[in-house]
């Protein structure tokens, strides 16, 4: 048992990360209500590609209505009017979205000739302005999990808990990917009311690699790989 605990400690120390205690009173977002202690959260929706003749166009929903997102990041209403813009630098390859009140949260990866970048942005549906944006390490977004006033994010070798108010991280860890491990997190969920679990396919078997983080303190309590 002692060797197992020492192994977990060494793995934790080898990971680059930071954390601090969560602040439950940090949101000014209309429509965000603190949820019950046992709530498991909801997932952001994945934007699906539109069919021919617009193969690079993605579909999202705002107020229950279908909008189209061009690779350029321009967002068009059902009437074809440009309503908003994501203001991305390169063509969007992957996009998740979640509406909270009059805010649209966008989790996306764009791709250039020399690489890819991942971002999270908060878009005001009233003004069309980007309220904040945060660049995320890595790519290959997992489906973000939103619980209360936070978004739980995973990309290649990276996990974190982000504040929806301002895009700052309550805790985050990078450098998880080693020898093909944690190259993409397939699932993010809550093991218990205070433990969030990130699960990644094992690169060489049918098993899975798992990281469990104490949601309150931000400390890694298990790294199984």
Question: What is the strand content?
Answer: over 45%
The first-to-last residue Cα distance is 17 Å
Instruction: Determine Rg (CA atoms, Å).
Output: 18 Å
Number of domains: 1
Fold-level CATH name: Lipocalin
List unreliable stretches of 5+ residues.
1-14, 19-37
The pLDDT mean sits at 82
Which CATH top level class fits? Answer: Mainly Beta
- Class from helix and strand fractions: mainly beta
CATH architecture: Beta Barrel
What level of helicity do the residues show?
A: under 10%
Q: How many beta-strand elements?
A: 20
Q: Please, could you describe this protein's structure?
A:
With 225 residues, the protein is mainly β. Helix content is 5%, strand content 48%. It has one helix spanning 2-13; strands at residues 16-19, 42-43, 45-46, 48-49, 58-62, 65-69, 74-76, 82-85, 92-100, 103-112, 115-124, 130-136, 145-147, 150-155, 158-163, 169-174, 187-192, 195-201, 208-214, 220-224. Residues 1-14 and 19-37 have low confidence and may be disordered. It has one helix and 20 strands. A six-stranded antiparallel beta sheet has the order 1-16-15-14-13-2, with no helix packed on it. Strands 3-9-10-11-12 form a five-stranded antiparallel beta sheet, with no helix packed on it. It has a five-stranded antiparallel beta sheet with strand order 4-5-6-7-8, with no helix packed on it. It has one domain (2-224): Beta Barrel (Lipocalin).
Summarize the structure.
The protein has 225 residues and is mainly beta. 5% of the residues lie in helices and 48% in strands.
